[in-house]
Design brief:
heterodimer; A: alpha/beta; D-Maltodextrin-Binding Protein, domain 2; 6-stranded mixed sheet; 5-stranded mixed sheet; B: alpha/beta; Arc Repressor Mutant, subunit A; 2 domains; 6 strands
């Protein structure tokens, strides 16, 4: 720490604080979920302070509001769904504001749950005694066909945001059985998922923790597979800021990355994961009981009330071996998401030229910030 | 289940060209003010308390021309996603205005209101409604801001006090000396007294 003491013999006994010691205030937005762990851990273990940052964690009630506040500078940086910075940079669903992504905060973490009513129907239709895990979407076929024939409304699934991995993972799962055009997909806040399954508004959902575990504990849902069974080790949440902020405050962003890398690394060890669950339950940011927060962090996928959980070691992944494996921002990841946006027709074919797209992607992948963070940690 | 109270506070129905507005806000006095500000025969305002997934049903029933929503409502993502569906297609106000008026957008987000426009509503009338909503939400925001400022001031005082106490204990200073030391550091670094105090506390606690 850059600290210098000058004790003068006179009454002017002063401790000198230099400009670089002053804490830099940062407003960091997020939506409270199990994989917000790196933020809450960094705050609790003093990692932000270690890099002279005075971080205020700003939980938001919706992804759209998080995006709008980040775009207009009411928040300095945020934990975002991996596709959100790209959607913002392309002006999909919002103003077009170029974003910058200096690091990936987590991989995996989502799961698909179905209502018990639909699960019983699947068992009956397919003459099964129990559902396989991971369940292939093909087992839905008869339920979908029956609804079509009888003129009933189609099966309805929910995700949390149109520009989310949840949305693309759900579609890809259905696509494996060529059923992606046969179900309705709507958006509902995660906290509403369990009650919406129970009320019959939806038949299933794809959402992150702790909401699958919560629905299983409450008996409203049965989890049939995790996102790891659809996309192995795909970026789920990223650190994002506006391109303008990243340009104006490169040091602050590097420090923020460094602090968050420390907590991601801390989170790779299983014993720490339980402590993280406890921190989150106690922090007030995620007011849910520890028995719904902890399982996914411990590699346990609850499937059905009172059933033995499935083992999914990478259910939530924050770090592996070194910072490069999980956390480095890459152009490949952005290209993958861009393709998903094209496949799902979120991005109109002719909206951008190839050159314009390339420039947007290049501006988004902030490798220099990530490297500065590694340099800070190497000190 | 959350409260789900719907009240139709419509003006008299006397022509078919009324612009219908769905207001989603569980701050009752704020919404009452907005409704009364918009209460003339040209608008028909339906008010809905934050209501979760049933919002979808309501939107489908009412097919409003415009939705005005508290930016802190968790239901915003439901509305935000509707532009991807063909049947209804409400666009966030930011995408509706042809000339992206970033100042209005920033103002509305700061004041805590967001709006969605559906179909081919007349931009001038939409603008009038947005202005009315902005004014009401800004009033409430400024009250909230004043409260936050007062709270912040009190906290800043507390932080400066504890920095002073820490200096007095660890450096054997008198209260006056501690305060002057803090003020000198603030002047030297061009920072607020409160920020210097925060840094000092964090340093002295690390060294201990």
């Amino acid at each position: 720490m850059n600290i210098e003491m000058t004790t003068q013999s006179t009454t002017d006994q002063t401790q000198v604080i230099t400009r670089s010691d002053i804490l830099t205030p940062v407003k960091l937005g997020f939506v409270s979920l199990t994989d917000s762990a790196p933020l809450i851990v960094a705050q609790r273990l003093g990692y932000f302070r270690q890099f002279n940052l005075d971080v205020t964690l700003c939980p938001q009630n919706s992804w759209s509001t998080l995006r709008d506040k980040l775009q207009t500078g009411l928040l300095d940086a945020a934990q975002l769904l991996a596709p959100m910075p790209l959607a913002s940079s392309l002006g999909l669903g919002s103003m077009q504001v170029q974003m910058s992504v200096p690091m990936v905060l987590s991989q995996n973490g989502n799961a698909i749950s179905l209502s018990p009513v639909l699960c019983h129907e699947i068992l009956r239709n397919n003459a099964l005694a129990e559902l396989p895990f991971p369940m292939p979407a093909s087992l839905l076929r008869q339920s979908i066909e029956r609804r079509k024939k009888s003129g009933e409304v189609a099966l309805r699934f929910a995700t949390v945001f149109p520009y989310s991995c949840h949305q693309y993972q759900l579609i890809d799962w259905l696509k494996q059985s060529d059923l992606h055009n046969d179900v309705d997909i709507i958006t509902i806040p995660p906290s509403e998922m369990s009650s919406s399954l129970e009320s019959g508004l939806i038949d299933g959902f794809c959402v992150g923790g702790p909401w699958n575990a919560k629905s299983v504990r409450e008996g409203t849902g049965i989890t049939v597979l995790t996102s790891y069974n659809i996309w192995q080790d795909a970026a789920e949440k990223v650190l994002g800021t506006s391109y303008a902020f990243a340009e104006q405050h490169p040091e602050t962003m590097a420090k923020l990355c460094a602090a968050l890398l420390l907590s991601c690394e801390w989170l790779q060890f299983l014993p720490n994961r339980f402590e993280a669950s406890k921190m989150m339950a106690e922090s007030g940011y995620l007011p849910e009981p520890i028995d719904v927060i902890a399982p996914s962090l411990l590699g346990s996928c609850l499937t059905e009330q009172n059933a033995t959980p499935q083992i999914v070691p990478n259910y939530n992944r924050f770090y592996f071996e070194n910072a490069l494996v999980v956390n480095a921002p890459t152009i490949e990841m952005q290209e993958l998401l861009l393709n998903k946006m094209r496949e799902t027709k979120q991005l109109p074919q002719d909206k951008f030229s190839a050159d314009a797209l390339q420039k947007i992607l290049d501006n988004m992948v902030n490798k220099s910030c990530f490297e500065s963070a590694l340099a800070l940690l190497a000190k | 289940m959350k409260r789900n109270d719907q009240r139709n506070q419509s003006a008299q129905v006397n022509n078919t060209k009324k612009l219908s507005i769905l207001l989603i806000d569980d701050n009752e006095s704020r919404s009452a003010q907005l409704i009364s500000a918009l209460k003339n025969s040209r608008y028909q305002v339906s008010h809905l308390l934050t209501s979760g997934a049933s919002l979808l049903k309501k939107v489908d029933e009412l097919k409003p021309d415009m939705v005005v929503i508290d930016i802190e409502s968790p239901d915003r993502d439901i509305l935000d996603s509707l532009h991807t569906l063909s049947s209804f297609n409400p666009k966030p106000i930011v995408m509706f205005s042809e000339q992206e008026d970033s100042e209005t957008i920033t103002r509305s987000i700061k004041s805590g209101v967001s709006a969605y426009v559906c179909g081919n509503a007349d931009p001038k009338r939409v603008r009038a409604i947005l202005d009315a909503a902005l004014a009401r939400f800004e009033d409430y925001q400024s009250v909230k801001q004043e409260l936050a400022d007062t709270k912040h001031e009190l906290e800043a005082k507390k932080i400066i006090e504890s920095a002073k106490r820490l200096l007095m204990q660890s450096r054997n200073m008198s209260e006056n000396e501690a305060f002057h030391a803090l003020r000198k550091m603030a002047m030297d670094t061009g920072q607020k007294l409160e920020d210097v105090a925060k840094t000092l506390i964090s340093m002295l606690n690390t060294i201990k």
